Amino acid sequence: MLALALALSLAASLQGAPDRFEELLLKHAGAGWSGAALVARGETVLHAAGYGFADFDADRPNDADTLFEIASVTKPFTAVAVLRLAQEKRLALDDSIAVLLPGVPTHSREITVRQLLAHTSGIPRHYDDGRGDDLARAVVDYLVGGPETRPGTKWEYWNGGYALLAGVIERASGESYTQVLEAQLFAPAGMGSTGFTGDTDLDPARVAVGRSAKGARTALEHPYGSYGYQYRGMGGIVTSVRDLHAFDRALASGKLLDAEHLEALFTRVAGEYALGWFVRRALDGSVRQSHGGSVRGFVADFRRLPEHDACIVVLANDDEARPWEIGDDLECLLLGRALVHAPPAGNVVTADDARLYAGTYVGAAGRLLVRAAGGVLMAGVEGQALIEALGGAGELDWKADLDELSRRAAAILEGLGKGDTAPLREHMAQRIPASWPDTMRRSIWPAHLARHGDFRGARPLGASARAGVVDVVVALEHEGGPTRARLTFGPAGLERLELDPHAGTFPASGPLQPLRKGVFRLPLGPDPAKLEFDLDARPAQSVRIGTLKLARN
Known about the structure:
The protein is an alpha+beta fold. It has 15 helices and 25 strands. The chain folds into three domains: 69-335, Beta-lactamase (3-Layer(aba) Sandwich), CATH 3.40.710; 351-383 and 508-552; 388-499, Roll (Nuclear Transport Factor 2, Chain: A).
């Protein structure tokens, strides 16, 4: 009877839970989180939705099928692939890594496959020089100094060990790491939308753009140049919250591993770490199997609660996000416990509210474009006076004349339009290769013209400061229509020029954080200004920023 009462109590606590999940996630979205989340019990998805924008510039919202890079949440997949090979007797977990890896130095031959999986190899985490596609070279580079402590005696999280495990998988299987995961994990799990950075067969219309102070990137763009051993095995999977739930179900059902190897996968080896998974206590004392990940533009939190047959996934396409905190509170809601993190302050922006504000507002100071998606209002700003009124001029540790940098940016592009690279050479930083202007003139610029037609002029839209540099966005007119370019300046001169940037086509942009009905702030700098929308009419017909007033266009 007690068990029945507890089951009924839990069932009752979950009635209406999706609404509570939505309310919590909308609060996080209003505070700036952009991503997707899923909560499931068994096969039943209790809540799955996207929040904010997959690509603000393209006006494309996140949803439960949006594809994100999951960084170190790739490690659990690598671990499952290794255990599957062990299950098939194609390797032994307690064999020396020298059995499968080429050129292992004598000082590292005591290290076993299991110790790589458990981060107990004794190799310190700062040994991270392996890269490229040459496995023998990567082995030497990663193991160059040998273990600092005897293998098996100390836990230290080491990305390089998972790159070596990618090599173990390749040598044991005779196939590439990506082929093994696609055929042995993704396919049997039903993860039809999952792949890797650099893949060309995933739908680009479903791929998120990750926002980062280091520059935006799509989930399919390699964060480290290629999918070599500098990232292979430790990160690089591109997937959705729905496909991660499918992975959870495949583990739970035995599709991927038998009971013996599933137990080995989740048995702690050192502290809270098992083989590719953290195994901790959930907020009600039950078992939680989890992993997180972070890479430029993307942050992820994936957790399984096997005693509740439950799964929680929180993904983000902004590297300042803290999805593990959101995951904690979703876990609290699922288990009927008090939240452990205070929900973000501010009003929730519902879909109906969002319609009041979304639109384009224009004034003498510039243009403000407001878009709504999944509980988030995002604003793109054009016009130097408006950027500065909103605090987007920022603070730099070097003296910069933003108007002058805008003029330089336009001159560089006007010069390219005439086949003249002198302005580019004059203003680029010395560390840029001297051959770059010729490469731009001979190949990059002609390819740009092939896409857009003859060049007809350049017009700067404004400059803003971020992370010690100044970004200038320039509108380009072509025979085939308008496009944009983004130029980044540092204290030494021009550091980067992007034609047709896949993100960042506004000089300044960011989420509108709700303060109260009709009042928001846009955190472009240390002292963000308030935006006050006039709600006398529905939708709003104007917005006031200090003494500036912009009218709906």
